[in-house]
Please model this.
Amino acid sequence: MTTTDIITVEAEPYSFAFSAATCALLVIDMQRDFLEPGGFGEMLGNDVSALRRTIEPNQRLLAVWRAKGWQVIHTREGHRPDLGCLPPAKKIRGRAPAKIGDPGPMGRILVRGEAGHDIIPELYPQAGEVIIDKPGKGAFYATDLHAIMQNRNIQQLIVTGVTTEVCVNTTVREANDRGYDCLVLQDCVGSYFPDMHEAGLKMIKEQGGIFGWVSHSDRLLAALP
Ligand code: TIU
Model:
């Protein structure tokens, strides 16, 4: 097998084909503030166990991907310490008592450099893996992700992370409009809300895969050489 050989994964609405040379694993926002008890997500009243079920399958996939030497990109949602990249509209949205930039249980909420903003230890990036710090829900908006993908000739993304209907969906839509193919792994993405998770996956794969493909990490792993 060479990295240019085509790998075909069973997926919906039909099989997804990629070559390892032009594909990256994109792990979205697996941050302590979203996944850990005591973080921002839980402070807002959410059940973090719904997200934590994605940790194990992501670990399994990452281990295989890394062993093959294939490309990995991580993202983190958050803002500069001076909050210069935080739109006032985003700060006040939701009328929550604790806002982005305020002190939280793991440092200032969703501020770069704070403990809660960082990626959970179970999926911590390794040397050589790209980390994209993004101020929005989508990983392309106001980041250099598109440039990095162009420079590395990445044309397809295997997408995992949280949350299915927010940052995963926004990123897949942004990628689709830039001409990239995305395969979303249903067991490796999660939402605080089961119905939103299901709807988020459906929106991607309906209408002939209008934004991309949906599969399961078991199917992807079974397809790998
Ligand atoms: N990463 C991500 O999805 N950020 C969010 O704010 N998600 C919510 O579900 N709120």
